[in-house]
Write a structure and sequence with these properties.
Layout lengths: L8 E4 L3 E2 L3 E2 L2 H8 L12 E4 L4 H12 L18 H15 L9
Parallel strand pairs: 1-4
Antiparallel strand pairs: 2-3
Length: 106
């Protein structure tokens, strides 16, 4: 679960994480999406600082107009059957609610 951090304006001064790894388009859209959050303000503004005309064009085309990447779950390992999560949930829930397993006598 994340933290709700609304703002009326967001200024993006760079498109890289510390260590020079570029933000994904989805990360950029999430950052600027903090401006004008529903329930906090009617409108929001985002500003992207570009120091050169080339960087401005690259940022505009790649991030502002860019389509976010597809979301890929990292929850499941490759080859894991998602139905096994349901079974694990039932198993874990049964273990927690089983008074005999907790040492109680029937």
């Amino acid at each position: 679960m994340g933290i709700n951090t609304p703002a009326s304006s967001v200024v993006v001064a760079g498109l890289e994480h510390p260590g020079n790894e570029s933000y994904s388009v989805a990360e950029y859209k999430n950052i600027i999406g903090r401006a004008g959050r529903l329930g906090y303000s009617e409108r929001g503004a985002s500003y992207l600082i570009a120091l050169t005309p080339q960087y401005k064009e690259q940022a505009w085309q790649g991030y502002v107009l860019g389509r976010p990447e597809d979301v890929m779950s990292r929850f499941l390992a490759t080859g894991t059957d998602p139905r096994s999560l349901v079974l694990r949930g039932f198993r874990d829930n049964a273990e927690v609610r089983n008074p005999v397993a907790d040492g109680a006598h029937p």
